[in-house]
């Protein structure tokens, strides 16, 4: 524990008699002082003793340090001597090694010619046997020495090729015959070893055959036997992948050039097995069933490229990507050359069939939409005047738009885009994708949507028709939904194929043109539909509103809150406002509702101008306008509500006391109106001709 002086003194005092109150003893300061003095002396003696011991140890440490330093110096001198001896030994070893190498070179220079002479002597001996026509050497008669025989006959074969034919034709023939026999024996031995699964024997024989002309035949035999029993299932691609995986593990143990052998196996699989399989699958449907042909072509090409991706893991040489691409191209080139023509032809016939089947289900004979100068003239007149040129067609509520048809067309086009992406050459991809998009525009936008818009426009009744059913809003609703689906496919499936090509701007322009063309017809149809709505309201007001509504015979006995005409008009408006909201989205809803609201206000304004109002009739007119204003709130358009607020304020002029007319006219809502408008409302009062009222208003 650490030394604490205060605690040490406390313990000393506590142990000293009379140093505290222990045991009831009285405190004795003299005795305590005496004890402290004695203890201090003891501590001084102890300190002197410890100090002497420390000095002695320091002297001893200095002495040992000097001895250690002296010893280290002696060791350094010994180390330097040893290092000098080592250098001398290293130089001596290098000198001896140089002598040994020189001696080895001299021995090799003497031994190599000797070995060559011995080898030449042996070959001359074997050559003499062929020359005599009788092979006596054990190497040719013993079947177990086929490896040595192969080495000898291969060398003799090379020598024989250098000899003149006229003098050595017979011996050359014999050597060639023996060469061929040994080659066949080696290939047979390799085949047998492969069937037995003896990898080491296969490796030995392959190494011997490497110097023979028939080495390639050995590789062919290996490839052929590898494929025996490998393609037993229906999935030839999976079988090929498993076979290559198995052979890849084995080929390196057998051949000295495994990448070449494996590449040759893969080439054989592609050019024989896969090409035959692809041809069988495609030729069956090539002329009879375009849909199945395209599906099979896409599936087979995809599975072939997937197989190629798996094979990229193996060592096939330097440029395996190009090698595999050429193999795939060799299989499919005849089918890919005219792929897009088949695709476009199928898409055209399939789309036409989908549309025709739909119109047949509706028992509808599609009418032709005229083209040329007269039709263009009609179109320009209709756009400028909004007049319905030609007879109105009763569509019986049919929009001639079908989401099922649209989904089918988009699905066919989606599959065509996927096939186009996979099967088209990268340089032709944007062009081919544009052709497919053009087919979609033709059949979906022109033949289906545009036809439905034309039919819908022709089916809109005139504004003075009674009880007309307005189905064009249903056309708008469905066309809006179809546009969203069309735009989604454009972004999801076409854009990735053309995003980095000049075709992008062409496709965007084509899409913009077709949408603008349809928007013009939609705007025209909506405008005529709004006119028709206003016409229906006019009929309701004309049929239901009576002059006596606003000039009742008994002013004191009016029990209704608003007129029957008002109730029916408001019901009609609410129904169609809701229909407009369901038929459109975004800002289009507000735009159309604002237009309808403005026309609705104009109609009510002009309608109120047709009647004269008694005091009670004016109150009833105010109640009607209040109900119209409540109806206008459903539009949720500030301008429309403001118009009806102003109209409501104008109606107050019908009932206000003559003395208060000027005050009301200068109110917040009427102060900015033209004085003629105010005057026209005041003139509707039955008491207007009284001198008093005319005087106050003037």
TrEMBL record:
Domain Exocyst complex component Sec10-like alpha-helical bundle: 148-697
UniProt KW keywords: Coiled coil, Exocytosis, Transport
Listed Pfam families: Sec10_HB, Sec10_N
Record field: transmembrane: none
Residue ranges annotated for the Exocyst complex component Sec10 N-terminal domain, each copy included: 29-137
Protein's UniProt keywords contain Electron transport: no
Coiled coil regions, renumbered to chain: 40-78
Gene Ontology biological process: exocytosis; Golgi to plasma membrane transport
InterPro entries: Sec10-like, Sec10_HB, Sec10_N
Signal peptide: none
GO cellular component terms, A-Z: exocyst
Family: Belongs to the SEC10 family.
Protein name: Exocyst complex component 5
Natural source organism: Ciconia maguari
Phylogenetic placement of the source organism: Eukaryota, Metazoa, Chordata, Craniata, Vertebrata
């Amino acid at each position: 524990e650490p030394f604490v002086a205060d605690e040490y003194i406390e313990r000393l005092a506590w142990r000293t008699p009379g140093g505290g109150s222990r045991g009831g003893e009285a405190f004795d300061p003299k005795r305590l002082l005496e004890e402290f003095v004695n203890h201090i002396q003891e501590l001084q003696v102890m300190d002197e003793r410890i100090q002497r011991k420390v000095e002695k140890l320091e002297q001893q440490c200095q002495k040992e340090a000097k001895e250690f330093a002296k010893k280290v110096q002696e060791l350094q001198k010994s180390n330097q001597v040893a290092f000098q001896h080592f250098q001398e030994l290293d130089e001596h070893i290098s000198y001896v090694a140089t002598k040994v190498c020189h001696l080895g070179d001299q021995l090799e220079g003497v031994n190599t010619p000797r070995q060559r002479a011995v080898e030449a002597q042996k070959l001359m001996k074997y050559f003499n046997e062929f020359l005599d026509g009788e092979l006596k050497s054990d190497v040719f008669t013993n079947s177990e020495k086929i490896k040595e025989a192969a080495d000898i006959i291969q060398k003799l074969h090379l020598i024989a090729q250098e000899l003149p034919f006229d003098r050595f034709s017979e011996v050359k023939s014999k050597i060639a015959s023996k060469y061929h026999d040994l080659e066949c024996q080696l290939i047979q031995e390799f085949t047998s070893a492969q069937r037995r699964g003896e990898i080491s024997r296969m490796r030995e024989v392959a190494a011997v055959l490497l110097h023979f002309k028939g080495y390639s035949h050995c590789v062919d035999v290996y490839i052929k036997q590898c494929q025996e029993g490998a393609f037993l299932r229906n999935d030839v691609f999976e079988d090929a992948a498993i076979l290559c995986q198995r052979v890849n593990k084995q080929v390196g143990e057998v051949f000295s050039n495994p990448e070449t052998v494996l590449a040759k196996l893969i080439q054989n699989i592609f050019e024989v097995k896969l090409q035959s399989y692809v041809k069988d699958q495609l030729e069956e449907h090539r002329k009879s069933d375009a849909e199945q042909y395209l599906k099979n072509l896409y599936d087979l090409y995809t599975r072939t490229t997937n197989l190629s991706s798996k094979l990229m893991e193996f060592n096939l040489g330097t440029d395996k990507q190009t090698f595999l691409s050429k193999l795939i191209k060799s299989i499919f080139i005849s089918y890919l050359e005219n792929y897009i023509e088949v695709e476009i032809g199928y898409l055209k016939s399939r789309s036409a069939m989908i549309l025709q089947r739909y119109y047949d289900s509706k028992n509808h004979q599609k009418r032709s939409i005229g083209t040329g100068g007269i039709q263009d003239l009609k179109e320009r007149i209709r756009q400028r005047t909004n007049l319905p040129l030609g007879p109105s067609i009763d569509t019986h509520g049919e929009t001639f738009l079908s989401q099922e048809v649209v989904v089918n067309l988009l699905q066919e086009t989606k599959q065509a885009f996927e096939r186009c992406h996979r099967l088209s050459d990268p340089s032709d991809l944007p062009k081919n994708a544009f052709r497919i998009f053009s087919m979609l525009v033709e059949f979906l936008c022109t033949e289906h949507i545009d036809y439905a818009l034309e039919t819908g426009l022709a089916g809109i009744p005139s504004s003075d028709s009674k009880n007309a059913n307005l189905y064009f809003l249903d056309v708008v609703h469905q066309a809006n939904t179809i546009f969203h689906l069309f735009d989604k496919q454009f972004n999801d499936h076409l854009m990735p194929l053309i995003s980095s090509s000049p075709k992008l701007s062409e496709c965007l322009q084509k899409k913009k043109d077709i949408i603008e063309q349809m928007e013009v017809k939609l705007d025209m149809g909506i405008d005529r539909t709004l006119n028709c709505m206003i016409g229906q309201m006019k009929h309701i007001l004309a049929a239901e509103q009576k002059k006596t509504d606003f000039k009742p015979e008994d002013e004191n006995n009016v029990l209704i809150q608003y007129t029957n005409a008002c109730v029916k008009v408001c019901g009609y408006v609410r129904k169609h406002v809701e229909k407009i909201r369901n038929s459109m989205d975004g800002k289009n809803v507000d735009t159309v509702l604002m237009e309808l609201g403005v026309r609705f206000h104009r109609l009510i304004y002009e309608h109120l101008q047709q009647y004269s109002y008694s005091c009670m009739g004016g109150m009833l007119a105010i109640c009607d306008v209040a109900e119209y204003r409540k109806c206008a709130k459903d539009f949720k358009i500030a301008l429309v509500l403001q118009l009806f607020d102003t109209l409501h304020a104008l109606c107050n002029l019908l009932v206000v006391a003559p003395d208060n007319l000027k005050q009301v006219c200068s109110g917040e809502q009427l102060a900015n109106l033209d004085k003629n408008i105010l005057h026209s409302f005041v003139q509707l009062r039955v008491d207007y001709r009284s001198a008093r009222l005319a005087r106050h208003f003037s």
